[in-house]
Design brief:
alpha/beta, Cytidine Deaminase, domain 2, 2 domains, five-stranded mixed β-sheet
């Protein structure tokens, strides 16, 4: 009779299990994306000593219990000796809710696996230190590239007080966002447009230029996905072209109009009586252009943690020139205009050589509907 030794999992087994359950925690965290501000979105999973999932949770809204609390409370029976997976380092201070570290320590959890350390100066490694001091085994940095993306907007806002800026554009294979007649409905597929509305939902604000408002009279609300609040609508309008009768002003929600200081009094008079619009003035440089740093600092002070830019070629080019955008999401349609007078995705932006061209570090691309969605981060070091 052959006797088999009891299976004893090794380091490789735990590494793979940690990655598998962290992926599940990340998936849970995205359920709260766009709904937890000013808190980060966080997901959590609890497993027993055999690796079986016995609890799961995510942070739903600011002021409500954190992901770890929801996860632990979802478990049936004792959690003693279990492993907690959480996409972000547990908090260790009293805010609107008690510290998560206290509950983790008193619950009997043996091991904690963390994705990203919390960039919040109130935490910043202190949560991990508290858990280790209490005798818990802590592993950090598991799938941290993915968990860092999850909190990229929170990281910038909590450390700099400025919103995370994502540029979104849909264009043809030859780089056109509209025909020469300014017709652009629809370059991208329905699936891409639905994804674009999801992007609106997970951002605090949506930004366009006055030209877009004047030409298209957009609503800039969320129609193709459910469960999200409309973002704050932001208009960049140096010369005060925006009409009081613009469609978006009749819709519920907050609006912010950025204009030049010389136009401030005129703007206040034009939009007087509209309670859902705030006018903010910013200075112009010698070329009579706004400085994005000033604009985004002021929008950050308005409580906006992330902004989706849906502006035209002028806005996008300006952001690239001033190195002010953090992320780009492009929907590339299988269309060709073949018309030099069609509207390009960039305007007033040119380079003299391939080596000096603007380049993205592509993090993801996938087929969505008939289009290709490309996500990338700017490589400003080349300029």
């Amino acid at each position: 009779m052959i006797t088999l030794n009891k299976f004893e999992p090794g380091i490789h087994y735990y590494m793979e299990l940690d990655k598998k359950l962290m992926k599940l925690a990340i998936k849970l965290a995205y359920k709260g994306k766009g709904k937890t501000f000013p808190n980060p979105c966080v997901g959590s999973v609890l497993s027993d000593c055999s690796g079986k999932v016995i609890g799961r949770g995510y942070h739903r809204r600011a002021g409500l219990p954190h992901a770890e609390v929801n996860c632990i409370n979802s478990a049936k029976g004792s959690v003693t000796g279990s492993t907690l997976y959480v996409t972000l380092e547990p908090c260790c201070f009293f805010g609107k809710t008690p510290p998560c570290t206290d509950l983790i320590i008193t619950s009997g959890i043996r091991r904690v696996v963390i994705g990203s350390e919390d960039p919040n100066p109130k935490v910043a490694g202190r949560g991990i230190a508290q858990l280790r001091k209490a005798g818990l085994e802590v592993v950090s940095g598991v799938l941290n590239e993915e968990t860092d993306i999850l909190i990229e907007d929170f990281r910038k806002y909590i450390t700099k007080g400025e919103p995370f800026i994502t540029v979104k554009a849909a264009f043809s294979l030859d780089g056109k966002i509209a025909a020469r007649t300014r017709d652009s409905k629809w370059i991208s597929s329905e699936s891409s447009r639905k994804e674009a509305h999801y992007l609106r939902g997970i951002n605090s604000g949506i930004l366009v230029g006055a030209g877009t408002v004047f030409t298209d009279d957009p609503s800039l609300n969320i129609r193709l996905v459910r469960g999200y609040r409309d973002p704050v609508r932001i208009i960049i309008d140096r010369d005060l072209k925006t009409r009081r009768s613009a469609k978006m002003f009749s819709l519920p929600g907050k609006h912010i109009l950025i204009t030049s200081r010389s136009r401030l009094s005129e703007a206040l008079k034009r939009f007087s009586g509209l309670n859902n619009i705030k006018v903010i003035s910013c200075s112009l440089n010698r070329a009579r252009h706004f400085t994005w740093v000033e604009i985004f600092r002021k929008l950050g002070s308005e409580g906006l943690g992330s902004i989706l830019v849906e502006g035209g070629s002028g806005i996008i080019s300006s952001l690239i020139k001033q190195q002010a955008a953090d992320k780009f999401i492009f929907f590339i349609s299988p269309r060709l205009f073949g018309d030099s007078r069609a509207v390009p995705v960039l305007a007033g932006f040119s380079v003299k050589s391939v080596n000096s061209s603007f380049k993205l570090k592509v993090s993801e691309y996938r087929v969505i509907g008939e289009d290709i969605m490309l996500i990338g981060y700017p490589d400003y070091r080349r300029h």
